[in-house]
Amino acid sequence: MPPEIVTKSPEAFSESTILSPAPQIVVLLIDDQIIIGEAIRRMLASEPDVIFHYCNDAAQAIHLAEEVAPTVILQDLVMPNIDGLMLVRQFRSNPITCNIPLIVLSTKDEPKVKAEAFALGINDYLVKLPDKIELVARLRYHSRAYLNHQAQTAALTAQAQTQKLEQALQELRKTQSQLIQTEKMSSLGQMVAGVAHEINNPVNFIYGNLKHIENYIQELLDLVHLYQEEYPQPSTKIQSYIETIDLDFVAQDLPKTLSSMKIGADRIRQIVLSLRNFSRLDQAEMKRVNLHEGIDSTLLILNHRIKQGITIIKSYYDLPLVECYPAQLNQVFMNILNNAMDALLEDSGKAHKQITIQTELTNSHQVQVRIQDNGCGIPLEIKNKLFDPFFTTKPVGQGTGLGLAICYQIVEKHQGEIEIGSGPEGGAEFIIRLPVQHFS
Ligand SMILES: Nc1ncnc2c1ncn2[C@@H]1O[C@H](COP(=O)(O)OP(=O)(O)OP(=O)(O)O)[C@@H](O)[C@H]1O
Ligand SMILES: [Mg+2]
């Protein structure tokens, strides 16, 4: 006999679908006896939300189940081609059908058989032929449970996917800001290091030779004095030249001029040292450094802004050397100090603009740097957004919103913490805590 596969759509089906939004119950019956198939079809004919599929060939059951996606499967246990329990095993091991409720519809009413079927994962067991009301109730119950489970799984999957997407987006933004930062740092660092290197050599010539010039000039002046002593009556030509150049003034002023040149050259050397200190391109590895040197170098680079009317108050504790990536930490100080200066300098009406930098050893393993300003402060509602990449309150073109995000990443990389507090007169405060040493 050829396999019989029947799909029944109850007459009222389409109408009831329109009237009732209730989920459809899709039943698949596998039974070799066509008479049973027909009996069940009749029982379900008056149920508008039931779609009925029937298959009398167990060999095709899995394939048909994959195709019609039933919400509940009814299956016989005793069939000519396949053992019913084997079919249960197949349904349960197939990833597409493994969760579909399975009701055994059998002539056998033996507890042992039932127990075996339940052990294999069936959801229910009915003895042929069941009462129509009971059958429909069970089909509905199992279908709903299955549909609810499916909906929950779908919601959870969607939620997990949303979370994954959000995470990926955050990662992307972090990577993007890191890329911009690396690019900014490496080009700024390279430029600073390059300029510092180029200035370093000539300024050393000047500084090194000033000492000799000072000696030579002193010797020449001594010689002039000697001449004046040995030849007290110079010729009129020499006498007139001495008056023209005002020899006494030259002799008095020359050492002063030289000394101010020496101070100037020394200042350039200090700036060059700070620039090199700031960029520290040579130090790609962790180094133990004096944090105060980094802060001072950064302040020196920002001197043009400080000179616009900001008082810097430093309160440095006697800190131990801190193991860190120095150029990166300098970038943290730079970003925070720049923000403080932005806040102070944009308020032209403020009379006394001040930044306080305080360092401290909080315990033997941790140092703390607090940078406070008495500027406009940070409103409570934006406090938790400050470290987000691209968050800025500055006008377009003035702020990228990356400064603090970069600080956060760098401090995190140093296994430290960065916290926002409040400065004097409602200003802002940034507190950075860093471990003194890293144990890998
Ligand atoms: N000291 C401060 N006082 C007041 N607001 C501050 C201070 N520091 C940061 N902010 C606020 O935090 C925001 C984010 O700072 P962040 O340094 O990340 O970006 P930005 O300064 O706007 O731009 P840039 O990338 O150029 O640094 C600023 O736009 C500002 O609103
Ligand atoms: Mg900034």
Automatic annotation (TrEMBL):
Keywords: ATP-binding, Coiled coil, Kinase, Nucleotide-binding, Phosphoprotein, Transferase, Two-component regulatory system. One of its GO terms (molecular function) is ATP binding. PROSITE patterns: HIS_KIN, RESPONSE_REGULATORY. Residues 194-438 form the Histidine kinase domain. It catalyses: ATP + protein L-histidine = ADP + protein N-phospho-L-histidine. Its EC number is 2.7.13.3. Signal peptide: none annotated. CDD domains: HisKA. The keyword Kinase applies. The keyword Chloroplast does not apply. PANTHER family: HISTIDINE KINASE (PTHR43065:SF50), SENSOR HISTIDINE KINASE (PTHR43065). This is histidine kinase. The lineage of its organism: Bacteria, Bacillati, Cyanobacteriota, Cyanophyceae, Leptolyngbyales.
